[in-house]
């Protein structure tokens, strides 16, 4: 259990497609713990993905339950191995930030409802529908697994990217 250093854009690891986890073993379980510790230590963080700490595997964690945007609509702490979105609907633009791009936020269009499937650390396959802020946070973290940052989803860097006043 350890807080890991967050890689910052333009580190090339952040732009790599992550490999599928073939087997959940002690190394993967440690990775999940490190992701949780790193998320909890991050200022206002609601999620973190393995490539953000330098590991190119399809593992991420999300927990919006302590966020004012997600506290009333969430599935608790999600420890996701090989997550995939199997359906999505709706769309909305929300302001997003990222620990790997600490000086900026941006307006990003995302699905407002997703059906998500993933393996939990104990190997259990889980599937459910997420909506609102939780769905956005999950999509943001899953983008990291595909080598995408929120910067890649901003339609206009001129009008949709904003310098962050403070990072807390």
From TrEMBL:
It comes from the Bacteria. Coiled coil: none annotated. GO terms for biological process: translation. Pfam families: Pep_deformylase. Keywords: Hydrolase, Iron, Metal-binding, Protein biosynthesis. The keyword Transmembrane helix does not apply. Binds 1 Fe(2+) ion. GO terms for molecular function: metal ion binding; peptide deformylase activity. It catalyses: N-terminal N-formyl-L-methionyl-[peptide] + H2O = N-terminal L-methionyl-[peptide] + formate. Its cofactor is Fe(2+). Fe cation binds at residues 98, 140, 144. The active site is at residue 141. Its EC number is 3.5.1.88. InterPro entries: Peptide_deformylase, Peptide_deformylase_sf. Removes the formyl group from the N-terminal Met of newly synthesized proteins. Requires at least a dipeptide for an efficient rate of reaction. N-terminal L-methionine is a prerequisite for activity but the enzyme has broad specificity at other positions. NCBIfam families: pept_deformyl (TIGR00079), PRK00150.1-3 (NF001159). Belongs to the polypeptide deformylase family. This is Peptide deformylase.
